[in-house]
Amino acid sequence: MGPFPYRMVVELSPREGGYVARVPAFGELEARGGTPAEAVTEALAAAERRSASMKRIDKPLPEPDATADYSGQLRLRLPRSLHARVAKRAEDEGISLNLLLSVLIAEGMGRRRRRGPMRKR
To answer: What is the pLDDT averaged over residues 11-23?
Structure first.
């Protein structure tokens, strides 16, 4: 399977505890997990099931909404201490550092969207 072609939003779910990952292109599709990575994994599985179901009944899939103009690759420099902390967390959660950073960025973007744009100081 290639890159997931749909935008995913990961947010903290304080009311229920844990995290929720939504795939807006599929309407109400959302999944929960105790960690951001678990929520993403569950949402990917739910989107695959929904896609398979839509294909079985010849219903067209939603248009991909992930931006195709970007490679998805980013070189990021971190302080060594932060690099060590996130690497340890990824190891503790049993996921790759790349997946953890992707989830944390998506989660932060979801929080930022609720608070509004950043202001220049």
So the answer is: 85
